[in-house]
Amino acid sequence: MNQTVLLTGASRGIGLALAKTLLARGYTVIGTSRSGVIDSIQHENFHPLALDSTRIESIEESHKEIFDRFDQIDSIINNAGMGPDLDQLIPDAVSFNSTFELNVKGVVLFTEPLLERISDSGSVLMISSKMGSIEKCIAFDSVGYRVSKSALNMYTKILANRLPFIKIAAVHPGYVKTEISETALLHGRLTPEQSAENILSFMESDFESGIFWDSETGSELPW
Ligand SMILES: NC(=O)c1ccc[n+]([C@@H]2O[C@H](COP(=O)([O-])OP(=O)(O)OC[C@H]3O[C@@H](n4cnc5c(N)ncnc54)[C@H](OP(=O)(O)O)[C@@H]3O)[C@@H](O)[C@H]2O)c1
Fold first, then answer.
1. pTM score, whole prediction
2. Atom 44 (ligand 1): residue with closest C-alpha?
3. What percent of the chain lies above the pLDDT cut of 90?
4. Cβ-contact 28, 45 below 8 angstroms
5. Residue nearest to atom 43 of ligand 1 (CA)
6. Residue 71, CA distances (Å) to 62, 115, 125 in order
7. What is the mean pLDDT of residues 186-195?
8. What's the distance, CA 180 to chain centroid?
9. 112-161 pLDDT tens trace
């Protein structure tokens, strides 16, 4: 397989597991982190790239680097995300702003100029969360995080409407043991490696564009 995947947030958690699994499956991976250094992966097909999606200068520098070095991208996995108000009842301005800067604005501004580089058979996955599903929501915690993922889902749907030749989906990665929150680390049901396998099986399947997919259960989620 000679396909290139651009993956954000490849330094730890689900993103690191995605990068390693993609490489094992024969993909070339452009993997981002804020520092641009990802020492835990040494592979000839791995290209680390600096990206802080909350800084427009960093997004623009990353685009320049990508356009200079890579002619075509087959898939983008927008995985980088944060949840500083996860498990909090009341939203606060600092965590609300930073969550939106990364989970929404950062994803949109990073993705837009890259779309022209995506191959016709390519795909764009947004790593969203079931916590952003409005229809299923009976909770009242984690306001910034939940609303950011609902907004990301809307962007996913808009892109799928606009670009019928690219397969685009929002994906819930399962409840995964990562550092995104203490609760996830302690009580997550999946390892990052299990989550990565599920996400990539979905990416490689003939999925319908414009859907919200639960990669843990292998079924569609309501928006
Ligand atoms: N874990 C779960 O149970 C769970 C459930 C549902 C959805 N998700 C979603 O899955 C995705 C990955 O989460 P995770 O659990 O693997 O989280 P994580 O372990 O905290 O990893 C987050 C990744 O995002 C990157 N990142 C953080 N701030 C950034 C910024 N300003 N600009 C660019 N990259 C930045 C980090 O890289 P650096 O810090 O090195 O830059 C890191 O690679 C997120 O979108 C999350 O919302 C996770």
1. 0.98
2. 81
3. 97
4. yes
5. 9
6. 14, 12, 20
7. 97
8. 13
9. 999 999 998 899 999 999 999 999 799 999 999 999 999 999 999 999 99
Q: Which residues form the pocket of ligand 1, taking CB atoms under 6 Å from any ligand atom?
A: 8-9, 11-15, 33-34, 51-54, 79-83, 102, 127, 129, 172-173, 175-176, 178-180, 184, 188
Mutate to test the pocket of ligand 1, among 55, 178, 182 (most ligand atoms within 8 A of CB): 178
Tokens of 52: 């802080």
CA dihedral for 86, 125, 117, 68, sign (positive or negative): positive
Instruction: Kindly give the distance from the C-alpha atom of residue 13 to the centroid of ligand 1, in angstroms, as a whole number.
Output: 7
CATH code of the domain occupying 4-220: 3.40.50.720
**Average confidence (pLDDT) over 69-82:** 97
Q: Using 50, 70 and 90 to split pLDDT, how confident is the model at 1?
A: low
Token couple for 5: 């995947």
pLDDT at residue 120, as a whole number: 85
Answer whether 205's CB lies under 8 Å from 218's CB: no
Distance 24 CA to ligand 1 centre (A): 21
Residues present in the chain in total: 223
Atom of ligand 1 nearest to the CA of 38: 40
Return the bridge partners of 219, or none.
Answer: 214
Supply 130's token pair.
């079931």
